[in-house]
Design a protein that fits this description.
By secondary structure, the chain is mainly β. It is built from four helices and 13 strands. The protein has a single domain, classed as outer membrane lipoprotein receptor (LolB), chain A (Clam), CATH 2.50.20.10. The longest helix has 17 residues.
């Protein structure tokens, strides 16, 4: 394992501790301009998410006012009722975003796909750095907020569904993540700068509870507004 990657994982609790768990669950309070722009202003404003820490799977519940639940995996997304009956599903969901721009509205199934890839990626980071097929490269340091942050370029393999093939994480001397950049391919390759803060320790693992995502400019600098997405995590559980 790359020594830099090892230091990052150790700062977050260590790979051996992480491997003791199979699922992470948290209550989410979400805001920002994206949800209204996509025609889903309140569907996931207050919900809970469960992500698998071994395979790529995630679920949000309640999903909308009717208390549905989503089930996401790369090749399929579905919505079920409170009794577990599948109400609708979409195979090869990423293909449904062809031609989309940032302003293109999403169906509920498309929202479930976006929320699935997003939260699975966020909540498995930084331990995704040692997942099979993931390639990590060191980038020059970055100056922001009066601090020097280190950076890693991450290239994901085709079998991982995430925002974009190439992403960048920023971290401090303490090894904790500060920022996460990517282009949202399913929304017209919209560039985002995702700020990570307010760490808490859960069963030996350090997990950020505040996430704020802003537009990213071509020079890598983030814009102060609009706030694209806000995510606050509560009641985090590992099992």
């Amino acid at each position: 394992m790359n020594s830099l990657v090892s230091n990052i994982l150790d700062a977050h609790g260590g790979l051996e501790q992480w491997k003791k768990f199979s699922f992470l669950k948290a209550r989410l309070v979400q805001g920002g301009a994206l949800w209204t722009l996509k025609g889903q202003p309140t569907t996931l404003s207050e919900t809970s998410v469960t992500v698998d820490l071994v395979r790529e799977w995630a679920s949000h519940s309640p999903f909308g006012a009717e208390a549905k639940a989503s089930s996401f995996e790369p090749g399929r997304v579905a919505l079920s009722n409170a009794q577990g009956k599948i109400l609708e599903e979409l195979r090869d969901p990423r293909l449904s975003f062809a031609g989309h721009t940032l302003e293109t509205p999403w169906s509920e199934l498309q929202l479930a796909y976006f929320a699935g890839i997003a939260m699975w990626t966020y909540l498995n980071m930084p331990f995704l750095l040692v997942r099979d097929g993931v390639v990590v490269e060191e980038l020059p340091d970055w100056s922001e907020k009066g601090e020097i942050w280190h950076r890693l370029k991450i290239t994901f393999p085709d079998d991982i569904a995430t925002h974009s093939t190439v992403q960048t994480i920023y971290f401090g001397d303490d090894g904790l993540l500060k920022r996460h950049d990517y282009d949202v391919e399913i929304a017209g390759n919209t560039p985002g700068a995702h700020y990570i803060d307010a760490y808490t320790e859960v069963q030996g693992i350090k997990i950020p509870t505040s996430r704020r995502i802003f537009p990213r400019q071509p020079d890598g600098q983030s814009m102060a507004e609009p706030l694209v997405v806000s995510i606050d995590l509560h009641d985090i559980q590992l099992s």
